[in-house]
Design brief:
With 312 residues, the protein is an alpha/beta fold. It has nine helices and 13 strands.
Amino acid sequence: MSAPTCRFCNTPLAHTLCDLGMSPLCESILAADQINQMEPFYPLKVWVCHSCLLVQLEQYVSAEHIFTEYAYFSAFSTAWLDHARSYVAMITGRLGLGPTSQVIELASNDGYLLQYFVERGIPALGIEPAANVAEAARKRGVETLVRFFGRELGAELAAAGKRADLVIGNNVLAQVPDVNSFVAGIAAVLTPTGTATLEFPHLQRLIQGNQFDTIYHEHFGYFSLLAVEAIFAAHGLTIFDVEELWTHGGSLRIWARPTADASRPAVWLPFQDFSQHSYLGAWSERVACEAGGSTCGTNQICNAGACAMVTP
């Protein structure tokens, strides 16, 4: 059996970050008549690419199988609505968005965020693959396209004159199996002076907090800033600002622009001081998820060599 390859740089994967054994899909809720039927389990083995340092799972089921009908509706969380409302107020002022602007959100869910742009009279388009969730967004007055986003759709929207001054992707990057197509699509749909902001759980926080419960098949990738910077650069996008957020156990919000737009220099240099991340030193030998080591209750051994390669 051939080794899996990195979903970004195609390097054969040889280093295990953590192996959590076998598990069913996290969103596979059984109906009453399925209780006595077989439920498929898949490996939860987390790899780290020694070339680009992307942490990732292999893909065992298609994105269509997981996301075509989705059980999670973002607007049920009042804390998440507050987060979205604050973001819209902040980004509108920072970018000077108005009635002639175009905002596109990827994996826009039930319109939890774009509804606040609509309230301000700012044109907004949601792209959401789950038809049941997209219908809830439309009821909030949010125009929503039921499609998976990638290189092809980004080019289609650009050709149709639907280029974005702002592209938003909150908690979707980890759920994309083809990260190259996804980021290439962002580059295609942005205007030459456009901005993309993406939020995703931070790999550093996963390691520091033993957040092993955030590892599941729906999350194909687990991102450090270093890995994300390389992925975006490969598709003509430059990260020029970064924020640390409280959401999902500790997340990053990255700000990206077309590399050709040199008007906004990078201001996230403090993140390049890797020495501040002394937590990596604790992983220099090995981390045992059992008595005498870093306890998470799974009785699994994490490969320390791979962990030590993971930078912020």
